Amino acid sequence: MTGFSHFWDAELTKETDMSLKTQLTDDMKTAMKAGEKARLGVIRLINAAIKQKEVDERVELDDAAVLAVLEKMVKQRRDSISQYDAAGREDLSTIERDEMAIIEHYLPAKMGEAEIAAAIDAAIAQTGATGAADMGKLMGVLKPQLAGKADMGDVSKLVKQKLAG
Asked: How many CB atoms lie within 10 A of CB 32?
């Protein structure tokens, strides 16, 4: 009987610690029922991007990989917004901004510069990085920790500054 009890506890843990894919599926159903067409469309785009990545790589994406897909989608929208703004297409820019807001809802809260600096310092201490040659090793440690929580381009710049200084 204890084996079953242990199994049940594991199932409860899964339920409370919902994966991003599960959350997206639940939110898609909610948006369908509520008739939120714009939100539903964006969630379907997200699910399609996740499914495409899974098919291409023949793997089941975990939350970290889903976050990477979401980050890429946000970056694509930022690029589109800047191009639409430059072309004077405020109508298209607004659509992209709305989509980006929905996608960002699924990303964790962004870390402040002080938090990022602390993570970099900890990674430097962990890896023993001393110079620019250790940049790849350092980024390899930081990327899983900061994915979705910080712009990795900004993190890279900060790492370069720390290693140079």
From this structure: 14
Whether the Cβ atoms of residue 106 and residue 138 lie closer than 8 Å to each other: no
pTM to 2 decimal places? 0.69
Q: In the structure encoding, which two tokens stand for residue 104, read together? A: 């960002």
Range of the domain at 144: 113-164
> What is the C-alpha separation between 146 and 152, in angstroms, rounded?
8
Share of residues in the chain with pLDDT > 70 (%): 89
Q: Which residue has the tokens 């620019």?
A: 132
Cα 113–chain centre separation: 18
Q: Which of 78, 104, 130 is the last residue of a domain?
A: 104
Please indicate, yes or no, whether residues 100 and 21 belong to a single structural domain of this protein: yes
Residues 28 and 84 in one domain: yes
- For residue 37, give the nearest of 93, 98, 79, 89 by alpha carbon: 98
Under 8 Å between Cβ of 67 and 48? no
